[in-house]
């Protein structure tokens, strides 16, 4: 599914003395099948933006189209939109509430009035997607699980709705390195194997560089930069001035230049990219 | 050097139903969360504790702060036994703690009131409180924000308010329990800079983190796994123990991985190079050998 955000503006407490413009004329497209990263420091408007994308917030002005349907229109069926566009909040594990893992995951499909057989099938599929062994976990209480497992249960609950777009707010925050990696691999798998369009809000520039196909940089309620990771991260000085980090490879090249190395590597993202740039730089010096 | 925090054969077992919800750490710990931990932390040191979710790191932090009392064994803070009820406030003002979620540790509607909360509770005289909180707010760079409402601040600023609140108690030691996990890159680097600054003026730092890039900034790293300390050493020692890192569910810092790639291509990066600054400096210097030609 493709999402077009057009001239989106959101003003909190509009008309009052404490009104705040959280989004200011934002326009962009999330391409079908993309993994679109949204980055920006705290308060830049990321959360407000994604809450519009599945209809939780209504814009002050502007429109959002999901495959051509205006989801900001009064006439649109919100349950239908939320089924197609799933949103996973930060630390979603705090929202688990059912007695068992299977019941928690079944909550959404059940609310849609699906048959028991269909619900059962979806719970199985969602659990297998999130690497939760059905035999082992289905009847367990979510509260007996580890942090990483709970988070996968919460995501499975959204996946059981079989969304065409999945919006994830910091899905790997607070996870240990191994769980972090498996979470990001899950995101990639959903995208490549199930053709789910992904919107990923993240503070982790290395993840954004490694997993995203497109990046949108928010600042002060506006889009500050957008493009592929390589296009965006070559604006390293501007990003740093906005309190944003850079992927490791770009940091290494910058640090080498600070130490007087005079190495070029604007399009470097990962450590592997940086290593290649270093080898090229050494070759040139040897000549 | 003398110890500020010691654990002797520490065991901690969570009662069922009691697992605190804030930290995801404790959830799956039916058995011992800490299972025979003996550690001594030197005064003035900077120790990072790393390990997977559920390895017992946060439980250990809560044992130091007397939020939890050992099931078996003993924890002392500057010689005080954490099992001694009478000592709880002395222990908490000696070893302060900064948690992961800044929103859960701010109690007042104005920044400076929040910072004053700790010393007020300790019964510090009012003029001295003013002095202490001003000093603390300046030290972490939030003095200009002192009249603001905490909810208008960014995550990194809120964490610095929490640090100032701990500093106003004039602790000898501060434990940071994943205090940067919820912050944006700018907020993370501000908090890490404050941590290093506090350590440089003698405050003992215990940093619990999932970020290997933060752990390399410590002078000692302890790896916890299944409630035990499975490795203990300087950052360069720790990150040369590849199989332990892997078995503990951890990863190597980016600088170490990149150095590995370069070594594979014949660039002789020395083993001890584990930070981005050191790697950049070594590479810049290595390149200079060709400049003379």
CATH architecture of chain B: 3-Layer(aba) Sandwich
Number of helices of chain B: 11
> Taking all residues together, what is the mean pLDDT of chain B?
91
Q: What is the distance, rounded to the nearest whole angstrom, between the alpha carbons of the first and last residues of chain B?
A: 50 Å
* SSE succession of chain A: EEEHEEHEHHHHEHEHEEHHHH
What's the quaternary structure here? heterodimer
Query: What's the CATH class label of the largest domain in chain A?
Result: Alpha Beta
- Helical/strand content category of chain A: alpha/beta
Radius of gyration of chain B: 20 Å
Overall, the morphology of chain B is globular
Spatial strand sequence of the major β-sheet of chain B? 6-7-8-3-9-10
Could you list the spans of chain B in which at least 5 consecutive residues all have pLDDT below 50?
Answer: 18-29
Helicity of chain B, in percent? 25-40%
Low-confidence stretches of chain A: none
- The CATH topology assignment of chain B is Rossmann fold
Annotation, overall tally of beta strands of chain B: 10
What does it look like?
- The complex is a heterodimer of chains A (287) and B (293).
- Chain A is of the alpha/beta class.
- Chain A contains 12 helices and 10 strands.
- Chain A has helices at residues 46-53, 78-84, 101-111, 116-129, 134-137, 147-159, 177-194, 205-211, 229-233, 236-241, 248-258, 271-286, and strands at residues 3-12, 20-30, 35-39, 61-66, 69-70, 85-88, 165-169, 197-201, 214-219, 222-227.
- Chain B is of the alpha/beta class.
- Chain B has one domain (3-234): Rossmann fold (3-Layer(aba) Sandwich), CATH 3.40.50.
- Chain B has helices spanning 57-64, 88-94, 111-121, 126-140, 155-167, 185-200, 212-215, 235-238, 242-247, 254-264, 276-288, and strands at residues 3-13, 32-42, 46-50, 72-77, 80-81, 95-98, 173-177, 204-208, 220-225, 228-233.
- In chain B, helix 4 crosses helix 5 (155-167).
- Chains A and B meet through helix 6, helix 7, helix 11 and helix 12 of A and helix 6, helix 10 and helix 11 of B.
């Amino acid at each position: 599914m493709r999402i077009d955000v057009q001239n989106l503006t959101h003003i909190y407490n509009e008309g009052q003395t404490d009104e705040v413009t959280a989004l200011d004329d934002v326009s962009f497209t999330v391409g079908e099948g993309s993994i679109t990263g949204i980055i920006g420091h705290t308060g830049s408007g990321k959360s407000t933006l994604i809450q519009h994308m599945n209809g939780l917030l209504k814009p002050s002005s502007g429109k959002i189209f999901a495959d051509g349907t205006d989801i900001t229109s009064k006439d649109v069926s919100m349950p239908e939109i939320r089924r197609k566009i799933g949103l996973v909040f930060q630390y979603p594990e705090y929202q688990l509430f059912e007695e068992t893992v299977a019941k928690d995951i079944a909550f959404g499909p059940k609310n849609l009035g699906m048959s028991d057989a269909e619900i059962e099938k979806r719970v199985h599929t969602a659990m297998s997607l999130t690497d939760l062994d059905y035999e082992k976990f289905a009847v367990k209480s979510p509260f007996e699980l580890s942090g990483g497992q709970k988070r996968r249960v919460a995501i499975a609950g959204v996946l059981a709705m079989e969304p065409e777009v999945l919006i994830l707010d910091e899905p790997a925050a607070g996870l240990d390195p191994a769980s972090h990696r498996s979470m990001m691999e899950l995101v990639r798998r959903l995208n490549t194997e199930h053709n789910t369009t992904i919107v990923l809000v993240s503070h982790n520039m290395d993840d954004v560089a490694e997993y995203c196909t497109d990046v949108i940089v928010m600042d002060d309620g506006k889009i500050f930069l957008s493009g592929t990771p390589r296009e965006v991260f070559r604006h390293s000085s501007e990003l740093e001035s906005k309190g944003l980090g850079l992927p490791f490879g770009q940091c290494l090249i910058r640090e080498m230049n600070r130490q007087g190395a005079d190495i070029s590597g604007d399009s470097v993202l990962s450590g592997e990219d940086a290593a290649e740039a270093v080898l090229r730089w050494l070759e040139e010096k040897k000549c | 050097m003398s110890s500020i925090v010691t654990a002797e054969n520490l065991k901690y077992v969570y009662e069922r139903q009691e697992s605190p919800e804030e930290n995801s750490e404790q959830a799956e710990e039916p058995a011992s969360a800490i299972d025979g931990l003996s550690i001594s932390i030197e005064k003035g040191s900077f120790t990072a504790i790393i390990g997977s979710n559920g390895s017992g790191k946060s439980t250990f932090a809560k044992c130091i702060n007397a939020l939890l009392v050992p099931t078996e064994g003993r924890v002392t803070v500057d010689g005080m036994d954490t099992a001694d009820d009478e000592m709880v406030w002395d222990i908490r003002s000696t070893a302060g703690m900064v948690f992961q979620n800044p929103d859960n540790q701010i109690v007042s509607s104005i920044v400076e009131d929040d910072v004053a909360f700790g010393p007020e509770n300790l019964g510090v005289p009012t003029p001295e409180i003013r002095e202490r909180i001003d000093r603390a707010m300046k030290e972490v760079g939030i003095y200009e924000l002192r009249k603001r409402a905490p909810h208008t601040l960014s995550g990194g600023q809120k964490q610095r308010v929490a640090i100032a609140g701990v500093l106003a108690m004039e602790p000898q030691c501060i434990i940071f329990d994943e205090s940067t996990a919820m912050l944006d890159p700018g907020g993370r680097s501000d908090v890490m800079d404050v941590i290093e600054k506090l350590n440089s003026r003698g405050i003992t730092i215990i940093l619990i983190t999932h970020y290997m890039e933060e752990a390399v900034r410590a002078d000692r790293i302890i790896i916890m796994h299944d409630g035990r300390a499975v490795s203990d050493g300087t950052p360069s020692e720790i990150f040369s123990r590849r199989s332990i890192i892997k078995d503990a569910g951890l990863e190597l810092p980016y600088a170490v991985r990149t150095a590995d790639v370069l070594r594979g291509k014949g660039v002789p990066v020395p083993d001890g190079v584990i930070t981005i600054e050191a790697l950049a400096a070594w590479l810049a210097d290595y390149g200079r050998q060709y400049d003379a030609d």
